[in-house]
Amino acid sequence: MADNIQKDQFIRLSNDTDPASVYSLITYNWKIPPPNLVVSVVGGDGDFKMKTWLKDILRKGLVKAAQSTATYYMDSVDGPTYSLDNNYSVFLLADDGTHGQMGGETSFRFRLEEHISRQKTGVGGKGSIEIPVLCMLIAGESKMLE
Prior knowledge:
This protein is an alpha/beta fold and 146 residues long. The protein has one domain. It contains 3 helices and 5 strands, in the order βαβαββαβ. The longest helix is centred in the middle third of the chain and has 17 residues.
């Protein structure tokens, strides 16, 4: 039974950490292949309750995208405490030094997404197309995308 234990990677880092260093850690040290797509999920009110049918459609679409290409999914916590999701294999815990406040990870996340979007797709990053980042806004205002 011990052979079935999944060992996830995680790191706690400052929110002003260089995204190139973190991307190198993920791809070279942890040997996780570079993505062909990044899906960034952002949202507003943590109390938003998505309709079950819509949640199912969204989940199926994300699973299909993940199965068809190497995809990195990025999202944020929706409260002051958060349990790690066992569907993820890498956790970047960005710390801005505040206690009990949300949003400190946002600047790091956007800088990491921007860094990844400037990398090339293909084996060893030698392709000719930059990695696309798809931003999905769920239960928020359009100004969150700025």
